[in-house]
Amino acid sequence: MRYYRLVVLFLLFVSSFAFGQAGKPKFSVYKSDVNPNAVKEGIRGIAVLFSCEYNFSDAEYAAMKNSEGRNYFTFYASMAHKNNDSFYSGLDYRQSKKAFNTIALHVAEEHAYEPQNKAQGRRNTGIELFIPFYQLNLPEGSSAVKFILNATTEKENTFERIHTQDITINKPAVTFISLQPKQITVTDKAGKKYEAESIEQDLFAIPGSSKTSTDIISAGNVSTKVPFNFIYSEGDIVRLKLQKSTSKGVVSSNKVRVLKASNGQIMTNFDNKAALQGEWPLDPKQKTIALTNPAVQINLEVGRTKVPGIRITEFTINPYSTHEGVAGATLTIAYESKATPGAPALVAVPSYVNATQETVLLKGGMVTAGKSSIDSTGAIALSQEPGKISVFYPAFNLLLYHPGIRQQTPNQFAVQIMLQSGSGLVTQKQIKQNLPVSVIQDARIAPAVKAKDTTFNNIRGLAISIPYQLPKLYTDLQKDNLMIQLVEASGKDSRGADLLRNMTVVNNTVEKVTDPTNKKGASFRISKPTGVISLFLPYTDLNRQEKAPVPFFAKAVISQNGAPGAEVGGNSSAIRFDIDTKKLRFVTLGISNINLKKANTGDIMWRITSSGRTIYQSVMLPAAKTIDNLYTLAGYMHEDDMVAIEMLKGKTAADAKLMFKWEKPVKELTASEILELEPSKLPNNTDDGDTKSVSIMYSVQ
């Protein structure tokens, strides 16, 4: 019983807030006129005129005031089918009103008027809205719908359904217009005519009859090679305007155009560029039209194709879905369509609004349900028949194609149905939905690996195998961009990264790559979703022996063009050593006191080899008759290997010939020894007759 009373009290509180004291609604629409078949400035649509009274308390008014201390209400219409499926909201067009001087009045921002006599109440009168038919997500013909008035404040207090009304809309047919320039002739001030191929970014299709409107249906170059396309709603007035645009899309004439002659060369000798402007009404029923003024004549061929009636019936995003073991988000679009023979191809273009209020096309998806395909821009191909399509966006692709998405989670999404040519909007729908991208752990890498004794290409050393595993979807979508990065465990311990960076890859499914984002570690491009990174290090390249495990950090990364990538899994790892250290010797080798009989036939160099492999080779040294300097090198060697010191002579390292060679098994080296070698004591008669004597020294630890 106590729970029941709490519920009743809660409902009474909500009712009081929504409808005001004593059951009064916050908004009383006392006069309304909704004309479902109106014309404004030559554009057909729905005209709305209404007046309303407000029933807020003084405290409520104070709580809703904006930064200037005023109460502004933004009124907007929404519309839904009889099943309450929404197909239009004026709030979706709030930005377009600010960007263009448009005939459409999707929103009306009104200051709350307060008369001197408070008994008369606060009110606004004569509030006007206008919604063009071509911006409604409805098929051609008659549709019985519910018209709804709503209001919101700057502080996002939203008051929905302050007035509802059933209306019937007769939406006109929508046509795809293609204007193909066949001939462009420009005339300068002297009366000289030139044949042109294109006029850069100058032609606009502008809705309505108002000369002050800067709204734009379509914009593009005038070119004999590319048609000028746009969507046209039957019965509307559309003007073609030839005039330069600014970067914001507002028509202006303060910039010089680029013209190209019929051979494609830029026309630098054409004078009177400022006169290349004009405005002409469009008659879409004509087969050819001519845009003519004293400076230009453009002859165009008119193509007409009826756009299929299409309506978006479902638009949802599931931000917590998975596909084939990969975390991500699924976007679902369902639509109704009436097939029209020869109709232009349509695409669905999903997008979101980022932190700076820019519209960003959603990319990196793959179709998981329905018959469709996606291009590189993110546009989803639609069939002429009704359908339902699901597109999965892996979390790793969201981070790759939208790097800032994690810092600023988007919450406003839209899908626009457009012509595949990108020349015209057919319909659209928006939703509010957060799309968080959390830390991804799709990749798994071994937390600890062993370094073992091995022999590779007859060279003794240690081997490390690092297993990794990713879902197959990663290589299906990003095969050339997948890397495993092995980095420092911390800023104070680089031993593991140093060791791994110096190792060589020995399996052909993994490629060691130069990675600008991982200069202190090792990066490997992988081509298979599951595999092993097999690495080898000769003992002679081992800088130090480690007895305790050596830490490093392993992570899987997707990276394109050297940019910071998206991390898709990783963990702290360590190298555990399972090698026979008793068979390793730390050997220091040196050569000095080189005495030659003559020194005028080239320079000399010396090198250390082990089991046929060059461990060290010096630069070319001046071949004086006596070289007193001591040259040494130290490193680990396996006791079963041979070690040799060689001296060569020649003009360059490439043509140097062996003068003498000293060689001995590592296991036979004593603690230390200095050997004074003469030609008679050199093995295999390698002396070329110029060596007088040389000192070899070594020590073993």
TrEMBL record:
Keyword Signal: yes
Key words of the record: Signal
Residues annotated as signal peptide: 1-20
Name of the protein in question: Uncharacterized protein
